[in-house]
Amino acid sequence: MSIGDPIADMLTRIRNATNVKAKTVTCIRNKVCVGIAGVLRDEGYIDSFDVVEDGRQGLIRIRLKYATSGESLMHSIKRMSKPGRRMYSGSEALPRPLQGLGIAIVSTSKGVLSDRKAREQSVGGELLAIIE
């Protein structure tokens, strides 16, 4: 089965898994999705992830993280740039979700970064998603 937008598919799978309090979720592997998983791990939204070879494209197995009360750490996941309408932003104009408590995920020339790291490195790029 072909997926038109693998980034939106990954974010939807994570959103659905957190709604039902699942411990793990698997997504189709590509470079951008591995980068997004790395940003989520570095920012503390997921425990860890690993790449599983399945003889085809491969899968990403993500272990989700919850608060001690059982509440999800990700309250809202929004896909910003879409195949029909790309959204680009310079390093100064990157959004600050929840006044810096959330993150924006940006695809830059230096890889997939959080908005904080993109500002530190003074690079802009395609605004992929906002996590609150």
List strands and helices in order, with pairings.
Blueprint: H1 6-19, E1 24-28, H2 31-42, E2 46-52, E3 59-64, E4 77-79, E5 88-89, E6 103-108, E7 111-114, H3 115-120, E8 125-131
Antiparallel strand pairs: 1-3, 2-3, 4-8, 5-8, 6-7, 6-8
Describe this structure in words.
The protein has helices spanning 6-19, 31-42, 115-120, and strands at residues 24-28, 46-52, 59-64, 77-79, 88-89, 103-108, 111-114, 125-131. The protein is built from three helices and eight strands. The strands form two sheets. Strands 4, 5, 6, 7 and 8 form a five-stranded antiparallel sheet that branches. A three-stranded antiparallel sheet has the order 1-3-2, with helices on one face. With 132 residues, it is of the alpha+beta class.
